[in-house]
Structure formats: structure tokens, C-alpha cells
Amino acid sequence: MNMEDLYRLLRTSHVQAQGIVDTVADPMLVLDASLCVQNASRSFFETFKVDRYETIGQPLFELGNGQWDIPDLRRLLLEVIPKATAVINYQVDHVFPGLGSRTMLLTARTLVHPDNASHSMLLSIVDATERFQRDVAKDLLLGEMRHRIKNLFGVAQSLARQTPIEGRSAQQYRDDLLGRLGALMEAEDLAFVKQDETVLAALLERILAPYQAGPAAIVIEPGPAVELASRSLSSLGLICHELATNAAKYGALSKAGGEVRVSWTIDADKTELRLSWVEHGGPVVTPPASTGYGTKLIRSVASYSLGGRSELDYAVEGLRAEIFVPLRSDSLPN
């Protein structure tokens, strides 16, 4: 039996038997005109851990050592109800002894007994704390998703604008842009489905899998456990994609027998991640005469997105790259 059914029954039949009151699943009180408790449901006693003998006949605001002497509740029963006859889902936030901070939704209805014109009131109490907490969590998640989507569109727009078009075909431009967007999507996907200390290894495996021409072409060495923010994952995904693309075009992965070794360490204070990329077995390396877009992207992402730095060493035997990433969230740029 719900609140509506009990209200109709009490109004038409004037029945207040305890068995009927106990059919209401949520805590409920029946109050007289002076706001003393005439009856209470079993769920009320169980939820608020009070005894029947210390409840029935007592003024509502004196129950449980005054735990129901709540300003919002007083206003509801003494000011709102007399004018409205019924109030539904009136929110009350209060700290209850033994329960802690709770959010209650109160529904109150006035009963008028035609035989003697007396008044009584039904007061239903629904603990909506967990529901409100879930709603807050959903709002935070939606806000984070909106923020991420906005950032992703911004990054995609930036990549499209900055990917060079001079001296290359439309197909080359398309392939470069789609490759970078693919790396970004892989990192974002991991950020949603995998938030633990193995996420860096999983990110490297996903980003580098398309470049794995042979079983020994790319070696990802085991490293220490590390937790990374989703923003850091996206940035590292872009950097690793650029390094792998460069290796496939000009470096170790462009020649049979070439190898790339990827590893990472954490400093003693656990405040900085150091990602190492080492190539060997490829063509002889000569420092580039000018800085290409890929190199610019690596440096800018490391500095501005990660709040860290990058070091690129064009050694003769192969490119060596070091990416330094702060692990404190407050070190990330806004």
C-alpha cells in the first residue's frame, strides 16, 4: 500500500490500525492536530532506531532527543501545511544521530474527520540520500564528458589546421590526420574503460600495435605501476603515435631488423614519469635540417598539455626520446 492508498482509506473509513500503517514501505507517521504521534509504521522504528513506547503519544519535535526538531520541518508543518493541505516531496537536509547527514523527502497530507471535525496528518519520509548522490555523480560525469568532448573537438581542430599541406597529396594529408585522430580516440577510450595502474602499458600496446611489423620490432619493457589522468593519456597517446609514425617512415621501423624499445620509470619521489623511446637497427640517423610538424607536436604536447618536457637525441644508431611527465594533477596546465 502506498501513501495515496492509505490517505484515501483513512479519510473515508477513519481507520488507523497498526497493521494498515505497517503496509507502507517508507517511514511514516500519523500526527494529531498538536503534532503528537498517534501512530508510526514499522519502517519508521527500524530506520530511525527508536522504540514504539518512546514514540507514540510524544510530540514530533521531541522524538529521539530532539532529532526531529528541524527548522525546515517546523516550517513545513506549522506554516506550509495549514495553507496547502498537502505538500509532496519537500526536501529536508539534516544530520541524524546514528545515520549521519541525510536528504529526506517529506510528503504531508492533512486529514479532516467529518464526525468531529478533528484534524490529523500523514507524514511520509523517504530517504533520498543515495538517489541524490547518484544524481550528483551523474551530473559530474556529464560535465566531465562535455568538457572532454569540447577538448577533443579543440584538439581535432588544431590537428587539422596544423597538419602540413605543402608538398603532399590529399591522401597523405588524410592519412596523417586520421592517424593522429585514431591515436587520440584510442587514448580516450582507455581513459573511460580502464582507470588503474596498468593503463600506461595498455595505452602503449594499443597505440603501437599497428606498427608491429614483426614480433621483435617493438619491445615494451615492463615498468612500475602508475596511474595517469585521462588528459595525460590522450597527450601520451599522441606523442607515441608521432614517434611510431616517424620510426615507420624514416627510423628503425622502416627497415627489416630495426627495433624500438619503450620503457618507463618513476623518480624516487614519485612525482615524475620518465618515458623512454630508443631506436636501433634502422638507417643511419642525421639530425633534420628543419623542425617538422611531428617534432613540433611532440614538444608542444609534452610542454603545454602535460606540463613536462621532451628531449630528442638524433643519435647515429637511432633516435632516442625522453618524455618527462609530472604525476601530480596540480602540475597539469589549465
Automatic annotation (TrEMBL):
GO biological process: any one?
Answer: regulation of DNA-templated transcription
The catalytic activity of this protein is classed by the Enzyme Commission as: 2.7.13.3
Give the SUPFAM superfamilies listed for this entry: ATPase domain of HSP90 chaperone/DNA topoisomerase II/histidine kinase, PYP-like sensor domain (PAS domain)
Where would I find the Signal transduction histidine kinase HWE region domain in this sequence? 144-225
Top enzyme category: transferase
Q: Which UniProt keywords apply?
A: ATP-binding, Kinase, Nucleotide-binding, Phosphoprotein, Transferase
State the SMART domains in the record. HWE_HK
Superkingdom, according to UniProt? Bacteria
What GO molecular function annotations does the UniProt record carry, in alphabetical order? ATP binding; protein histidine kinase activity
- Quick one: signal sequence residues? none
Catalytic reactions on record: ATP + protein L-histidine = ADP + protein N-phospho-L-histidine
Q: Which Pfam families match?
A: HWE_HK, PAS
Q: Which Gene3D superfamilies match?
A: Histidine kinase-like ATPase, C-terminal domain, PAS domain
Q: What is this protein called?
A: histidine kinase
Q: Which organism is it from?
A: Rhodopseudomonas palustris
